[in-house]
Amino acid sequence: MMTRAVVFAYHDVGVRCLKTLLSHGIDVALVVTHRDRADENIWFASVADTAADYGIEVITPDDPDTPEVLDRVRAAHPDLLFSFYYRHLLGTALLDSAPLGAFNMHGSLLPAYRGRVPVNWALIHGETETGATLHAMTSKPDNGAIVDQMAVPILCDDDAADVFAKITVAAEIVLSRSLPALAAGRATLTAQDLSRGGYFGGRRPEDGHLDPAWDAARLHNFIRALTRPFPGAFASLAGRQLRIWRSFRAPFPVGVPRPACASLMAAGGTLWLLAANGQALRLTDAELDGQPLDAAAFHTLFDQQTLELA
Questions:
Q1: Mind telling me which residue stretches traverse the membrane in this protein (predicted)?
Q2: pLDDT at 293
């Protein structure tokens, strides 16, 4: 008898995990997803479009924890329930609707980085590794027992999009190798040691302000964590908004005095971000008030070699 599932999903991980279920012969009876918001940069694939390609019924409730949604889920008679980057917590009644269990795919190596935007937070903190974790869902976010997880490396200049692409593949692999045991009701679950990780909240565009007191490594991590398709890291430069999209660690320029705080400098055809700890970043993509800023533009706009960030 074919195993049936109801899937709550969004984003690239949602698309790839949905396709993984279908490739394993899981009968996906219903997909619950989000309507794309007009004020959001939709840079990722559409779960709704993918479900339509396969003729799967789709609903997009603003709130999944309503009697109407619960009735739709129960009417689908799922054996398993999955959440793949769906943005709302699911209530106990929904979690109990599937006799073989309800499982979530999270973009970190739980118990580390529970909660929102784990890829961005891992980069901000300079991690060299993260991953994807499939775990049982409970009424509390990301704290259920682990089915399986897979690590991926974070290279020194990887940005959030690079890391998210790796996690998407890891999520597909983790789900694929876990499905036979889940469908048979024989999966081995391992309780999380929640003392080994913390919970992180969501981030807003205004949270992207660079602190001029940070060292070069922290500035670099912050920039690559928030670069496109995210809103970007920014600071004030001579009363104007500087937004930095890409940086590379580099030797501090010879003969340049160490600044008291993070400062922007143009020299040798290169735009530099000089940190207060005597280290430097070479900037290859930056904007000032929304216009491209490179070394030549800096010399045109300012009569000073170095300007402090605020």
A1: none
A2: 98
Q: At what angle do helices 216-226 and 160-183 cross, to 10 degrees?
A: 60
Over residues 214-238, the pLDDT tens digits come to 999 999 999 999 999 999 999 999 9
Alpha-carbon span 182 to 184, nearest angstrom: 5
Among 202, 244, 251, CA closest to 221: 244
Q: Which two tokens stand for residue 98?
A: 């599937």
pLDDT band at 304 (very low <50, low <70, confident <90, very high): confident
**Average pLDDT estimate for 295-302:** 95
Instruction: Judge contact between 65 and 87, C-beta under 8 A.
Output: no
Domains of the chain: 4-200 (3.40.50.170), 208-308 (3.10.25.10)
What are all long-range contacts of 236-243, with beta carbons under 8 Å and residues at least 24 apart? 236/309, 236/310, 237/264, 237/288, 237/307, 237/309, 237/310, 238/302, 238/307, 240/288, 240/289, 241/288, 241/289, 241/290, 242/286, 242/287, 242/288, 242/293, 242/309, 243/286, 243/287, 243/288, 243/290
Contact (CB, 8 A) for 302 and 265: no
User: pLDDT tens for residues 106-115?
Assistant: 999 999 999 9
Give the Cα separation of 269 and 252 in Å (integer): 15
Q: List the structure tokens of 130.
A: 């993260």
Residues, the chain: 310
- Residue appearing with tokens 């991690």: 127
Give the residue from 207, 267, 260 showing the smallest Cα distance to 234.
207
Task: Please compute the mean of the pLDDT values over residues 290-307 and round it to a whole number.
Answer: 94
- Residue with token string 């922290």: 218
CB-count burial class (<10 Å; 0-12, 13-18, 19+) for 287: middle
Single pTM value for the model? 0.95
